[in-house]
Amino acid sequence: MNDPDLSDLSAFMAVTEVRSFRAAARLRGVSASALSEAIRRLEARLDVRLLNRTTRSVTVTEAGQRLMERLGPALGEIAGALDAVNSFRDSPTGTLRLNVPTIVAKHVLPPIVTGFLAAHPGIKLEVVSNDTFIDVLAAGFDAGIRYDERLERDMIAVPIGPRTQHFVAAGSRAYFDAHGWPEHPRELLEHACIGHKFPSGVLAAWSFVRGGEHVRFTPQGPLVASTLELEVAAAKAGLGMIYTFDEFLRPHIDSGTLVPVLHDWWEHFSGPFLYYQSRMHMPAPLRAFIDFIKEE
To answer: 9-24 b/e with 16+ CB inside 10 Å = b?
Structure first.
């Protein structure tokens, strides 16, 4: 029997941790078919079934469970041993895998990433966008970036990017001319509001704050989407109002195709944080990235 390939073992761990080929593929930035082929190769080399697959679920066999229990710590030790060599280099090498929200991938990371990779040519950075909170370690990532998430005790959070951001409510001039210009958030209950649905299925609430008054409601309108480009297009076409990050809408506001309203009520919140597990040994690429953003 040939020894199993290390990448196939890693693929097996990725699938077993989330119990889904599609979810594991999405989180790792590869195709589900590539993961499936890796599992087939591994099972053929070991001559034992590790996973039971159906169209709806993935379950681990007894043999697969035994392998998973022993393999997790072993892979961690291998990664640590290989990474220890980095301490002898002038510049660290290796791969850094981050899981980040869409807003961070588009508007926070670009200036940071270009400077970081220029300073560390030996590091390869893999960034996967995901707008739900996940167990980054179980999904095979070195760290994640999120907004004010409640972290486990063994997680550390480091500020990254702008320290304050805010949402903006906006619509086309034609829409407001036809339906009226709102002066209070409660008036939006009578307006067409374009909704945003997260991958989890949760519909994003609209929240406004001024002084001690807080208005929060679930938007109602002609469109609910999970794609920002579609939502912006609908707002520009006059189908309703949109409410999202200022960074997403600023180009359209500056061009005049969207007009912001209720400025005094925009909700401001803390910027994003890089979070990672507290541990004695940290991969050199992650340490280099943390040092870089702290300096920046």
So the answer is: bbbbbbbbbbebbebb
